[in-house]
Every structure is written in C-alpha cells, then in structure tokens.
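Quick one: structure for this chain?
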Amino acid sequence: MTASAAVGGVRRRRWPRPTIGLRLTLLITAPAVVITGALLLLGYLLVRDFFYTPLDSTDRTRLLAAAGTERRDRATNRRFRDNYGMSVSDFLDGIRREIGDELLRALLTRSAVVLVVTAVVAGVCAWVVARRALRPMREVTAAATTLSEGDLRARIPTPGVDDEVRDLVRAFNGMLARLEAAFAAQRAFAALVSHELRTPLASLRGEADLMLAQPDCSERERLVAGAAVAAVERSEALVSSLLALARAESGQFDARPVDLADVVGEVVGEHAEAAGRAGIRLDLRLTEARLPVHGERALLTAMVTNLVGNAVRHNRPRGTVVVAVDRAGPEATLEITNTGAPLSDEDVAALLRPFSRLTGDPGPADCRPAGHGLGTAVVAAVVAAHAGTFTARPARPDGLHVQVRLPTGGTEPAP
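Got it. Here's what it folds into:
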C-alpha cells in the first residue's frame, strides 16, 4: 500500500518500507526470473534462426542428388516459375517462414505466461522462506517492544537449530537477564534507603514536636522547630513517593478489587481543608457510586493523592479544581483539571519528567511548600503497573488537564 504526504506544498509518494523480508524475497525471485527469461529467449532465438535461415545451395543440391530427383526438380521448378513466378525452393521457404511466424507468435505468448507464472511462484516461495527464516527476528522485535523497566521477565524461546539466529536470541536473553538484575537491584536499593530514612526522620519529627510542646519555648525556637517540622514532612513525602515508585515499578503488589470512586472521594476529602484555606474550590463529580478496578489500594491512593495535591498546590487565588470519575466502556476514567498558570505543550512534557517542578505559579502556590518533583513519575509508574494510560495536556484557557484510564474488573468491594 502506498501513501502520499505533502512536503513544502508538493505531494510526495511514500513507498512501502524496504524490510529485510521484502529484500530477501526480491533477491531470491530476481535470479529465478532472469534465468527463466534467458532460457526462453535462447529458445526463441534458436527457433527463429531455424525457420528464417534459408538452406544452403550446396546442401539442397546434395539432398536432391541423393534422392535422385534433381532433374525432375528442375522441370518442376520451370513449371512453378512459369505458373507462379517462383521456384519450388522459394515456395517451400515461404511456407516455412509462415509456419515459423505462427510458431514464434505462439512461443512468445507462452513464454510470457511461463515468465509471469515463474515470477509469481518464485516470489511466493521466496516470501514463505524469508518469513520462516526471519521468524526469530520478529520474536526478538516483539519482545523488545513489550519490555519496560517494570517488567523485564520476558524471554524469547531459543530455536532448536544451532545457527546465527540462535546466537542472537541467546545474546538478547542474556542482556535481558542482566538488565532485570540491574533494575531489581536499583529498586531494592531505593526501597531499602527509603525505609531506613524513616527512622531518623521520625526521630527528628519527635524532637521538633517535643520542643514545640515546651511551655518555655522562645519564639526563635518555635520558628526553628516549625521549619524543622516542615522539612521533615517534605522529606517524609519524598520517602513515601520513592517507596511507592519502587513498589509500582517492581510489579510486586497485592492486586485485588478496589473501588476507585471511594479512593478518589477519600483523597478529595483530605485535601478539602487545604483547598479551602487557599481559597480554591474543589469540585468532585462522581457518575457512579462504585467503580471497581483491579489493583492495590495503597498505590492507587498515592496516585490520586499526587494528582489532587498538585492540582491544589499549583493553582491561582480563587481558582478551581475539578475531579471527575466516570466509566468509559471497559475502563474507569479519572480526569482532573485546575486553573493554574498557562502552560504550553513543552511545559507539560517537561512536567512529566522526574524531579520537574512548576515555577512562577501565581497566588497560593507561592505560599505553599513546593513539591518534591516525583509526583508525575509516581503516577505514571502506578498507572503502568495497573495496565492503564496516563495523559496530560494544557487546559484552556490556563491550567492543566490530566486523565488516567484504568481497566475495570473484579467484584465490587463490599461497602
């Protein structure tokens, strides 16, 4: 199939991609067609030479003499020349040329049919052979396209024939095993460090709370303790995000039916007070009382918390946050729109990278603590672990619109 594209006002035809299978088919078919065509041409030339080359006079005389009909042939020639204006030899040559013309026309037609049939048969056989030979390559490509950092457990079956393809499959499977071990060690290290950081953070938080509880605490000490509590809270949020990210990317969690509508309602309720203090209207829209999805409640809660928290944090004074949960066929959708700073597509793409933060947000966002920059990474990892999709785009006239789609399934959780 061909397609055309307009480039600089000129429509340019796009031909099929020259795949290895197509090139192998052409390389196998072309010699068969060329050899068949050469043989047919050689046969055509030999037949043409036989019918269009006149007999040598010496050969004709020798044949007539051997048959004892030389004198009678001369008399016949005189009568033919008198009656038809030609000799018997010229008459026979004319008949031979007519027979040759008919035979060559039939030979040419049948040669063309043979050439077309040869091309078709050779092309089909070559295509079948090429596809069979390239089957391991397609398996390698399919495995590579389905891999992600969260699932490197796929392996390609090793062919039984000990050839170059088998060496390629072995090398690819070995690379996958090394990548899986490296990513597993990385996730284990992040989870271990995050877990170990909780103890000193809890100690710091306890010391700061204890200082604030002292009746003789000075104003300066209260400011220092308050700053320490804020720093500890931010560090705890970062540690929780790192743990959620490591668990989501590992794919090892307890999946069971979870009511997404209940999770969203709970998270929105937790952020209602902060939104009210900032003068932001938080609007929750649920089309169904229960919307079960298959996953882990803790990870889904972390996902929704990051999305709603960012929508409240990066907003303008007297802005709005709309959180909508709905069902779209076999999927549950979560859409969040806020009225923050105007964003371009490049800004949104930058926000989806880890440790990226919005800068220059107006109003309350300047007064609230900045995020740790892992929110979108956590959301993307949780959505991917639950076989969903996560998209973000600029809202109109300003702000951000995000959408999460998760497959529904399982039995509805008990109320």
